[in-house]
Amino acid sequence: MTAVGLLAAGLVGLGMVFWTMQLVFAAFTIRRVRTIAGLPDERRETWPRVSVIVAACNERETIESAMAAKMSDDYPNVEFVVVDDRSDDGTGEVVEALAARDPRVRAVHVAELPEGWLGKLNAMEQGRRAATGQWLVFSDADVHFRPGTLRRVIAFAERAGFDHVPVFPALAAPNWVLGAIGGVFNRMLAVMGRLWAVEDPRSKATIGSGSFNMVRRTALERAGGLARVKLDVADDVALGALLKRSGARQTLLVGRGFVEVALYRTVGAMARGSERAPFTTVGDFSFWKMLFFCVAWTAMELGPALAFLPLFPFLPFPVWPVGVVWAALSIGIGAAIDFWLRRKLFPALLWPLGMLLLAAFFLRAGYLGAKRGGIRWRGRFYSTELLRAGRSYRP
Q1: Domain 35-268 is of which CATH architecture?
Q2: Among the listed residues 200, 202, 207, the one whose alpha carbon sits nearest the alpha carbon of residue 235
Q3: In the chain, where are the structural domains located?
Q4: What is the end-to-end Cα distance of the chain in Å, rounded?
Q5: pLDDT in tens, 106-152
Q6: Model pTM?
Q7: Using one digit for the tens of pLDDT, what is the confidence trace for 10-42?
Q8: Which of 59, 170, 176, 232 is the most exposed place for a label (fewest CB within 10 A)?
Q9: Strand, coil or helix: what is 376?
Q10: What is the DSSP letter of 383?
């Protein structure tokens, strides 16, 4: 028995344990997490006031079509608070035009960023202050809603007594490569995020969604407000964790067919968009921690492929069938989650490419964050020291 053979056997074994756990966790998620499509479309005489708060920074190319989709929702008691966060590309003019055309739209303009706040969080806070709703829906500027979304989600939350209802969106991908990356992201969120346990108040599992993060106003105030997460780059999940710690009842809905956002237009755009959150959460502000995570993750994901190589002459049985089982598991789990989310199934075959690209994005984020000593976001630089001292959430 050689050292290489022993190492390979260990990687194959650990990898198969990892994939078996993914199978179990994926099954739990698919079985227990509800979808908006599965909720009844109720009709009532009176509905609570809802404020959809959209923080936009240089979103001229996407905000008009996204707001048109949001405003097509026929919820009878809604306002749209659109916050122009220091944009210099004409976004503010688009926001004003929307407000002039539709009385449900309220335009808010942010000219300066106060010290100690991330730009997006400050914009969300300004929107919250302007909002009049009993329910607040924080939603990114490029997210699309389908008519009926708010009715279904509000009726469900009120009937079941939930205080925080994030919606995981459908991720639209313009090509197979981005589809493969999105598929891996969905799978890892489903299994590592323990989404099936979010409702359990005894579990530390929590979730949020920048696409659709709905919270009861009184629950947000009871938790201390957005000021408690003002320096959390992963603001959506940090808000979810804050609410759950305060005793708010939390659940998760899958938004297939109702809430959609374009993943990214190009692989390069996705790499740039991945510079912030991975460095501050997965990497914990350290390139070396990020490197360790990526190496370990790659070993667990791809380790069973070693079963196809002639590295095990010391074993009295062939090992390649283990590789066949791994291939079937890896493709099957990804395809099952994609089918559940109503995504195209072909990118599930490309998951190794998607996984390696995602790991490369994470490593790039770790390297740039360490080199720069922080992150750049919405025209501002935030130092590692500031973000580390100010964060409220650690995964």
Answers
A1: Alpha-Beta Complex (3.90)
A2: 207
A3: 3-30+271-390, 35-268
A4: 40
A5: 999 999 999 999 999 999 999 999 999 999 999 999 999 999 999 99
A6: 0.92
A7: 888 899 999 999 999 999 999 999 999 999 998
A8: 176
A9: strand
A10: E
